[in-house]
Amino acid sequence: MARFWIVVILICSIATLTGITGCRNRQKAHVLSQSDKDMVGSHTAGAETWKPLIDEAVCRLLAKSSSTVHQASHTTINGEGGVARSVCFVGVENRSSEEIGDFKEQIYEHIDSQISQDPQFKMISRRYVEAAMSECRCRPETLVLPAKQRELQLALERSEQPFDYLLFASITSGTTPSNGDYQRDYGLTLELLDIHTGDSQKDSATLRKGYHKGIFGKLKHYHD
Protein backbone atom coordinates (compact mmCIF):
# COMPACT_ATOMS: atom_id res chain seq x y z
CA MET A 1 0.00 0.00 0.00
CA ALA A 2 2.82 2.41 0.87
CA ARG A 3 4.41 1.77 -2.48
CA PHE A 4 1.09 2.55 -4.20
CA TRP A 5 0.82 5.96 -2.55
CA ILE A 6 4.46 6.76 -3.39
CA VAL A 7 3.71 6.08 -7.06
CA VAL A 8 0.56 8.23 -6.92
CA ILE A 9 2.47 11.12 -5.30
CA LEU A 10 5.22 10.89 -7.93
CA ILE A 11 2.69 10.92 -10.77
CA CYS A 12 0.91 13.96 -9.28
CA SER A 13 4.22 15.76 -8.78
CA ILE A 14 5.28 15.15 -12.38
CA ALA A 15 1.88 16.31 -13.66
CA THR A 16 2.10 19.48 -11.58
CA LEU A 17 5.62 20.30 -12.75
CA THR A 18 4.69 19.63 -16.36
CA GLY A 19 1.73 21.97 -16.05
CA ILE A 20 3.86 24.73 -14.56
CA THR A 21 6.58 24.31 -17.17
CA GLY A 22 3.99 24.32 -19.93
CA CYS A 23 2.61 27.61 -18.68
CA ARG A 24 6.06 29.13 -18.43
CA ASN A 25 6.96 28.08 -21.96
CA ARG A 26 3.77 29.38 -23.50
CA GLN A 27 4.66 31.93 -26.15
CA LYS A 28 2.93 35.29 -26.34
CA ALA A 29 3.29 38.23 -28.69
CA HIS A 30 2.31 41.87 -28.93
CA VAL A 31 2.38 44.50 -31.67
CA LEU A 32 4.98 47.22 -31.21
CA SER A 33 3.81 50.78 -31.77
CA GLN A 34 5.89 53.45 -33.50
CA SER A 35 6.93 54.82 -30.12
CA ASP A 36 8.12 51.44 -28.77
CA LYS A 37 11.82 50.67 -28.87
CA ASP A 38 13.03 47.69 -30.87
CA MET A 39 13.46 44.52 -28.83
CA VAL A 40 17.09 43.61 -28.17
CA GLY A 41 18.23 40.16 -29.28
CA SER A 42 19.47 38.12 -26.32
CA HIS A 43 21.85 35.88 -28.31
CA THR A 44 22.41 37.56 -31.68
CA ALA A 45 22.03 40.91 -33.41
CA GLY A 46 18.53 42.06 -34.32
CA ALA A 47 16.66 45.19 -35.35
CA GLU A 48 18.30 47.14 -32.53
CA THR A 49 21.68 46.52 -34.20
CA TRP A 50 21.07 46.56 -37.94
CA LYS A 51 18.84 49.62 -38.22
CA PRO A 52 21.29 52.06 -36.57
CA LEU A 53 24.19 50.60 -38.56
CA ILE A 54 22.34 51.04 -41.86
CA ASP A 55 21.21 54.58 -41.02
CA GLU A 56 24.73 55.69 -40.11
CA ALA A 57 26.56 53.96 -42.97
CA VAL A 58 24.11 55.23 -45.61
CA CYS A 59 24.19 58.75 -44.20
CA ARG A 60 27.99 58.84 -44.36
CA LEU A 61 28.10 57.45 -47.89
CA LEU A 62 25.56 59.93 -49.19
CA ALA A 63 27.34 62.86 -47.54
CA LYS A 64 30.68 61.91 -49.10
CA SER A 65 29.24 61.06 -52.51
CA SER A 66 27.43 64.38 -52.89
CA SER A 67 30.76 66.18 -53.28
CA THR A 68 32.37 63.74 -55.72
CA VAL A 69 29.95 63.18 -58.59
CA HIS A 70 31.62 61.64 -61.63
CA GLN A 71 29.89 62.38 -64.93
CA ALA A 72 29.80 58.90 -66.44
CA SER A 73 28.05 57.58 -69.52
CA HIS A 74 24.83 56.47 -67.84
CA THR A 75 24.25 59.28 -65.37
CA THR A 76 20.99 61.12 -65.90
CA ILE A 77 19.53 64.46 -64.94
CA ASN A 78 17.16 64.16 -61.99
CA GLY A 79 14.03 66.18 -61.29
CA GLU A 80 16.02 68.81 -59.40
CA GLY A 81 18.33 69.51 -62.33
CA GLY A 82 21.25 67.60 -60.82
CA VAL A 83 23.08 64.45 -61.77
CA ALA A 84 21.63 61.06 -60.83
CA ARG A 85 24.10 58.18 -60.91
CA SER A 86 22.89 54.79 -62.09
CA VAL A 87 23.79 52.24 -59.41
CA CYS A 88 23.72 48.44 -59.39
CA PHE A 89 23.44 47.12 -55.82
CA VAL A 90 24.86 43.59 -55.94
CA GLY A 91 23.88 42.37 -52.47
CA VAL A 92 24.81 41.99 -48.82
CA GLU A 93 27.77 39.79 -47.91
CA ASN A 94 27.79 38.33 -44.41
CA ARG A 95 31.35 37.97 -43.10
CA SER A 96 30.35 37.95 -39.44
CA SER A 97 30.37 35.01 -37.04
CA GLU A 98 26.56 34.97 -36.87
CA GLU A 99 23.89 33.59 -39.15
CA ILE A 100 21.69 36.61 -39.87
CA GLY A 101 18.78 34.69 -41.39
CA ASP A 102 15.95 36.75 -42.82
CA PHE A 103 17.61 39.96 -41.67
CA LYS A 104 19.78 39.76 -44.78
CA GLU A 105 16.72 40.59 -46.88
CA GLN A 106 15.73 43.36 -44.48
CA ILE A 107 19.21 44.86 -44.62
CA TYR A 108 19.23 44.83 -48.43
CA GLU A 109 15.81 46.43 -48.74
CA HIS A 110 16.53 49.04 -46.06
CA ILE A 111 19.78 50.13 -47.73
CA ASP A 112 18.21 50.17 -51.20
CA SER A 113 15.19 52.13 -50.01
CA GLN A 114 17.24 54.76 -48.17
CA ILE A 115 19.64 55.37 -51.04
CA SER A 116 16.77 55.47 -53.56
CA GLN A 117 15.34 58.47 -51.71
CA ASP A 118 18.43 60.52 -52.53
CA PRO A 119 18.06 62.34 -55.90
CA GLN A 120 21.75 61.85 -56.75
CA PHE A 121 21.23 58.09 -57.14
CA LYS A 122 19.13 56.01 -59.52
CA MET A 123 18.97 52.45 -58.18
CA ILE A 124 18.44 49.62 -60.65
CA SER A 125 15.63 47.28 -59.63
CA ARG A 126 16.79 44.27 -57.65
CA ARG A 127 14.82 41.98 -59.95
CA TYR A 128 16.90 43.07 -62.94
CA VAL A 129 20.15 42.78 -60.99
CA GLU A 130 19.51 39.29 -59.66
CA ALA A 131 18.40 38.01 -63.08
CA ALA A 132 21.50 39.46 -64.74
CA MET A 133 23.86 38.05 -62.07
CA SER A 134 22.27 34.64 -62.48
CA GLU A 135 22.69 34.85 -66.24
CA CYS A 136 26.37 35.79 -65.90
CA ARG A 137 26.94 33.33 -63.06
CA CYS A 138 28.79 35.99 -61.09
CA ARG A 139 29.06 36.62 -57.37
CA PRO A 140 29.62 39.97 -55.64
CA GLU A 141 33.26 39.19 -54.83
CA THR A 142 34.08 38.55 -58.52
CA LEU A 143 32.71 41.91 -59.67
CA VAL A 144 35.94 43.71 -58.87
CA LEU A 145 37.24 42.12 -62.09
CA PRO A 146 36.70 44.32 -65.18
CA ALA A 147 35.73 41.32 -67.31
CA LYS A 148 32.96 40.34 -64.88
CA GLN A 149 31.81 43.94 -64.63
CA ARG A 150 31.47 44.09 -68.39
CA GLU A 151 29.51 40.82 -68.48
CA LEU A 152 27.05 42.15 -65.94
CA GLN A 153 26.82 45.49 -67.69
CA LEU A 154 26.03 43.86 -71.04
CA ALA A 155 23.35 41.69 -69.44
CA LEU A 156 21.68 44.71 -67.84
CA GLU A 157 22.02 46.79 -71.01
CA ARG A 158 19.99 44.15 -72.82
CA SER A 159 17.24 44.90 -70.28
CA GLU A 160 17.78 48.64 -70.84
CA GLN A 161 19.22 48.98 -67.34
CA PRO A 162 22.78 50.30 -67.85
CA PHE A 163 24.86 51.37 -64.85
CA ASP A 164 28.09 53.16 -63.97
CA TYR A 165 28.46 52.21 -60.31
CA LEU A 166 28.43 49.02 -58.29
CA LEU A 167 27.32 49.10 -54.67
CA PHE A 168 28.60 46.47 -52.23
CA ALA A 169 27.51 45.92 -48.62
CA SER A 170 29.33 43.69 -46.15
CA ILE A 171 28.70 42.75 -42.51
CA THR A 172 31.53 41.91 -40.14
CA SER A 173 31.87 41.16 -36.44
CA GLY A 174 34.57 40.82 -33.81
CA THR A 175 34.11 38.97 -30.52
CA THR A 176 35.87 39.69 -27.21
CA PRO A 177 35.27 36.96 -24.57
CA SER A 178 35.42 37.80 -20.85
CA ASN A 179 34.88 35.03 -18.28
CA GLY A 180 31.86 33.52 -20.00
CA ASP A 181 30.46 36.88 -21.07
CA TYR A 182 31.41 38.47 -24.36
CA GLN A 183 31.31 41.70 -26.34
CA ARG A 184 30.61 41.64 -30.05
CA ASP A 185 31.46 44.56 -32.31
CA TYR A 186 29.29 44.67 -35.43
CA GLY A 187 30.24 46.54 -38.58
CA LEU A 188 28.46 47.44 -41.81
CA THR A 189 30.54 48.67 -44.75
CA LEU A 190 29.18 50.20 -47.96
CA GLU A 191 31.40 50.57 -51.01
CA LEU A 192 30.45 52.49 -54.15
CA LEU A 193 32.69 51.48 -57.09
CA ASP A 194 32.98 53.49 -60.32
CA ILE A 195 33.40 50.81 -63.01
CA HIS A 196 34.94 53.31 -65.46
CA THR A 197 37.71 54.68 -63.27
CA GLY A 198 38.04 51.96 -60.63
CA ASP A 199 37.70 54.60 -57.93
CA SER A 200 35.70 53.60 -54.88
CA GLN A 201 34.08 55.40 -51.98
CA LYS A 202 33.79 53.38 -48.81
CA ASP A 203 32.02 54.18 -45.56
CA SER A 204 31.19 52.09 -42.54
CA ALA A 205 29.44 52.16 -39.18
CA THR A 206 30.10 50.11 -36.05
CA LEU A 207 28.06 49.18 -32.99
CA ARG A 208 29.07 47.31 -29.81
CA LYS A 209 26.84 44.86 -28.02
CA GLY A 210 27.57 42.87 -24.85
CA TYR A 211 26.14 39.53 -23.79
CA HIS A 212 26.14 38.35 -20.16
CA LYS A 213 25.19 34.98 -18.73
CA GLY A 214 22.60 35.25 -15.96
CA ILE A 215 20.72 32.70 -13.86
CA PHE A 216 20.61 29.13 -15.20
CA GLY A 217 23.14 30.02 -17.90
CA LYS A 218 20.75 32.26 -19.84
CA LEU A 219 22.35 35.14 -21.69
CA LYS A 220 21.58 38.69 -20.72
CA HIS A 221 22.74 41.57 -22.87
CA TYR A 222 23.67 45.20 -22.88
CA HIS A 223 23.59 47.42 -25.89
CA ASP A 224 25.88 50.31 -26.74
Key words describing this protein structure:
224 residues, Rossmann fold, 7-stranded mixed sheet, 7 strands, 29% strand
Task: Describe, in plain words, how this protein is organized in 3D.
The structure is a single chain. This protein has five helices and seven strands, in the order ααββαβααββββ. It has 224 residues and is α/β, with parallel strands linked by helices. It has one domain (47-223): Rossmann fold, CATH 3.40.50. Strands 1, 2, 3, 4, 5, 6 and 7 form a seven-stranded mixed β-sheet that branches. A hairpin with a 5-residue loop joins strand 1 (76-77) and strand 2 (83-94). It is elongated.
Describe what is shown at a glance.
The chain is of the alpha/beta class and 224 residues long. The chain contains five helices and seven strands; from the N terminus they run H-H-E-E-H-E-H-H-E-E-E-E.
How many runs of DSSP E, i.e. beta strands?
A: 7
Multimer state? single chain
Mean pLDDT across all residues, rounded? Answer: 79
**Sheet of most strands:** 7 strands, mixed
Low-pLDDT stretches are 31-36, 216-222
**Looking at the structure, what is the overall shape?**
elongated
Order of helices and strands: HHEEHEHHEEEE
Give me the CATH fold name: Rossmann fold
Query: What is the class in the CATH system?
Result: Alpha Beta
**Structural class designation:** alpha/beta
Give the name of the CATH superfamily. ABC-type transport auxiliary lipoprotein component
